Amino acid sequence: MTKTLTFLSVALFAGVAFTSAADTFAPASLRKSSGATTAGTAAHAASASMPEIDGVVVAASNWGANAKPGFYRLPVTDGEEFSLIVNEAYGSGVVKDNRLYTIARITMPELDIDYPRLTVYNLKTGEEIYFENYYSKNWSILPVDMDLDPVTGEVYAITYNSSMTGYQLSVLTFTDNSVTSRKVADMAGNWNAVAFDADGQLYGISKVNNSEGYCVSSTLNRIDKASGAVTPIGETGMQPEYMSSAAFDRSTGRLFWSVAPADNTGLLAEINVATGAAATVYNFPNNEEVLGLYVPAPAADADAPAAVTDLKANFTGGSLSGTVSFTAPTTLFNGTPGVSALTYEIRANDQVVATGNTQYGAEVSADITVPAAAFYTIKASVSNAVGKGPDEYVELFIGNGIPQAPTPRATLNGGKVTLSWEPVTASTDGGYIDPAAVTYTVRRLPGDVEVASGFTATMYEDVLPATDNFTVYTYTVSAEHAGISSEPGMTRGVAVGEIVPPYLQTFDSEDSLAGWTLINANGDSRFWMWSDLQNLRIGFSAQTPKDDWVVTPPVALKAGVTYTFSFDIYGDSADDTECVEVKMGDANNVAALTTALLVPTDINSTKPMNLKMLVKPAVTGTYFIGIHAMSEPDKYMLNLDNVKIEEGDHTAILGIEADGAAQAIYRIDGTRVPAGTPLTPGLYIRNGRKIIVK
C-alpha cells in the first residue's frame, strides 16, 4: 500500500516528500486506520534492565507544523521522552565507524521527483558530512531496513531491486560520499526489518498484507546471508503497517523491534528469538515512527580502563610528522579508581603509529608520522590486564591539501584581455595551504596555449594574436601549492574579429553568447538569455509586451553577394501567438538596426520553425543582425536556436513577390496555393510576409 508523507512535505522540506522502501512512512496523526487490531500490545515484556537504544525518528503525532526528524535516544520506560542526538537525520539508517548513514526516498510525483538520497552524519559532532541524490534511481540502494554484520563488518539490507519490482538481500558499501549495492539474492514477499545477532546470524521480519494492502500478520525468520535462504521461526503476533526496524542487544542476545501499526500507535517490542513471539516493552510517548534501530555495544569491559581525555593532534603546516597528546584516565570503565600500570596505543586510520607505557592520570605525548597527505581519524586508548579502554578520537587532515580552483574573470579592451581572480587561500580537502606559496598557471583556449606559469600575482594581461576571423577565447587559471595543482577555473569567453560566412551558432553552452549583444529595450525583468535547453529563451510578462533584441557579433559581408540568414524559433504555448522581426545595421544597438530583413511575423508553433531571409548588401562592410522579440503581453516563452549565415540563396522561394493580391499565398517551395485550398501546417508567403500555420 502507498501513503503520502503530506506533513513533512509541507512543513519541513518545501514540497519534497521523503519516504523509504516497502511502505511509505507518515506522521502518526496522518495515518489512515484500517480497522485492524494489533495483537500483543497488552502484555508487556518481562522486566529487565534496558540497554541504550537509538533510532531515526521520522514521524510523531505531536510534531504539528514543527517536524523534528532526527537520530534519537529512545526512552527506557513508559512516560519518558526521546532525546535528540543528530538533528534532521531522515530515512532508514545504520551506524558504522562513528558515522550514521541514512537512505531516504525523496518523492514528489507532481514534479516528477523520485530518487534515493544518501546522507552521512558524524556521530561525535552531530554534523551532516555529506548528502548525495541518486537521480539514476538505482533502487537497489534503498533499504527496508539494514544492519551491520559484527563478524564481517559489512552492512546487509533488504532493499528494492534495481527496477523497484521486488525485493532483494543486498550488501551496501558506504563511504563518506557514496553508497553502492551488491545483490546477494532475490527475496520473495514483503519485509519489515532485519537484524544481526552477535554471531553474525541475520534475522528478518516478513509480513503478509490483505487484499487492501494492510498488514495482517508478521513472522520472524532466519536469513542465510550468503544465499538469502529464509527459514521461518514463528509469527510475532503484531501487524506492522508502516516502516520499522529491529536491532539486537548483542551483549545479552535480546532482540528489539520498533513497530508502527495501523492504529496510529508506536511502540517498542521485544521478540523471543526462539519462537518469534513479540511483546510490547512500552508505548512510544508520541506514537513515534522509528527506523534505523541501533543498540550500541558497551565501549569496554567494566574493569578495563576508562577513555583517555584531552586528546590532541598537532601538525605544523603541511608536515606529515607531528605529535599526539592526551591524558590517561584516572578510573576504570566502571568508575572505580585505577591503580595498575597501563599501556597506550595510537592509531591513524586504524594503523598503529605509536605505543608505549603510562600510568593512570599521566600526560602522554608521542611523535607520529603518517605515510601520505590525507584525512585521518586519530584514535588513542589505554589498556590494563583486563582489556582495552574505549577509543577517543579526533579527525583532521594531515599534509598539504589540494588548492581551491580560482574563479577568473576576463575583460577585453581592444586586442588585450585582462584577467583577474581572488587569491587562493584554502584547500578543497581541508589540507594545509600557505597562501604566500601559491602560484598560478594561465592557459588560453583554443590551442591550449600556456601564457603564464609560476605566476604569483592575481592579475594578468594577455595580448591576443592578430586575427580577422571571429574567434572566441577562454582562459583557465589553476593554482599550485607544494607541487599540487587545483582544478582549473575557467573564464567566460571573449570574442574578437568578424564572422565570415558560413557561420552556425547552436547555443550549446552559455559561452556561445560571447560576442553577441542582448538588449533589454523595455527594461523589464524578462530578456533573452541562455537556457539549459541549449538555446536562447525569453520569458513573459502579463503586463508588458516583449521588446528584446539578440544581436549577432559583427559579420563581414560583401557588396552584391547574396546571403541567407536563418534561425529556428518557437513558442512554449500553442494558445499564444508570438511575434518577431529581424533588422540589420552597422552597429549593435537598436538605433543602428534600420534595414528590415523580416517584417513582424507571427509565431504560432511549439515546434522549431526555420525562418529564412535573404541579405544582399550594397556596400562591403561590417554588419550586425538583430532578432527582435515583440510579442504582446502575456504570451509566455519564446525560444531561439540554430542561427545560420550562409553565402548564397538557400531560401527556396526565389521569384516570390508581393503581388498585391490579398489572397495570393505561396508555399515555401515557390508554388502558389490555389484559391480556397485549406492550408496544412507549415511556412507560407502572402503579400511578401511570411506566415506560419500550425
Keywords:
single chain, 694 residues, mainly beta, Immunoglobulin-like, 4 domains, six-stranded antiparallel β-sheet, 1 helix, 52 strands, flat
What does the model show?
This protein has 694 residues and is mainly β. The protein has four domains: 6-26 and 40-294, Neuraminidase (6 Propeller); 309-398, Immunoglobulin-like, CATH 2.60.40; 409-496, Immunoglobulins (Immunoglobulin-like, Sandwich), CATH 2.60.40.10; 503-651, Jelly Rolls (Sandwich). Helices cover 1% and strands 47% of the residues. It contains one helix and 52 strands. Strands 31, 32, 34, 35, 36 and 37 form a six-stranded antiparallel beta sheet that branches. Strands 38, 40, 41, 44, 47 and 49 form a six-stranded antiparallel beta sheet that branches. The protein is flat and about 105 Å long. The two termini are 45 Å apart. Residues 1-47 and 654-663 have low confidence and may be disordered.
At CATH's second level, what is the architecture of the largest domain? 6 Propeller
Principal-axis shape equals flat
- Helix count, DSSP H or I runs of 4 or more residues: 1
Strand pairing plus helix content: what structural class? mainly beta
- Under CATH, the topology of the largest domain is which? Neuraminidase
Termini separation (Å)? 45 Å
Quaternary assembly? single chain
What is the class of the largest domain in the CATH system? Mainly Beta
Rg over alpha carbons: 35 Å
Low-confidence stretches: 1-47, 654-663
Total strands: 52
Major sheet details: 6 strands, antiparallel
| Estimated share of beta-strand residues | over 45%
